[in-house]
Design brief:
This protein is mostly helical. About 60% of the residues lie in helices and about 10% in strands. A hairpin with a 2-residue loop joins β1 and β2. The protein is rod-shaped. It starts with 13 loop residues before the first helix and ends in a 15-residue tail after the last helix.
Length: about 150
């Protein structure tokens, strides 16, 4: 019976349920952080593509491969960077699917064990102050026309 998957066995008490829930939330946060990290890499790839695309195809170009700087031409590097970007976008799409699946799993777990998240008093106060100051960072010119 020890070989059963964790999802197959019923938790015996509140502490086990809480630990399982915390583990699921941790997995969700890990997926979020990985998606964010990969989106930053896609952004960097886009910057590189936009920078070298208008250049002459025979121009020298340097690329870091596994910690080694190699000399190539723009013609050789551009398709490789584009392929890497496409691959990263594909991984992000798969992670987003896993994220939605994990969110659904957590929602079902919360419903099954009637889990509710309580906000601390300080968080509730912070939320109300955010609503009031939601237009922070917006500059508005004078109401009257200029002479």
């Amino acid at each position: 019976m020890a070989s059963k998957a964790e999802g197959d066995k019923e938790p015996v008490n509140e502490q086990v349920v809480a630990n399982m829930y915390a583990g699921m939330r941790s997995e969700l946060n890990q997926i979020y952080s990985k998606i964010t990290e990969l989106e930053m890499e896609v952004s960097e790839h886009s910057l590189v593509i936009n920078a070298i695309q208008p250049l002459d195809q025979s121009r020298r170009c340097y690329r870091m491969i596994g910690g080694v700087l190699v000399e190539r031409t723009v013609k050789e590097v551009l398709p490789a960077v584009q392929r890497n970007k496409d691959g990263l976008e594909e991984v992000i799409a798969r992670l987003n699917e896993a994220l939605e699946k994990k969110k659904k799993e957590i929602a079902e777990f919360e419903a099954k064990y009637k889990i509710r998240i309580k906000k601390a008093d300080s968080e509730v106060k912070d939320d109300s102050s955010r609503k009031e100051g939601s237009a922070q960072g917006v500059l508005v010119g004078p109401a009257g026309g200029s002479k």
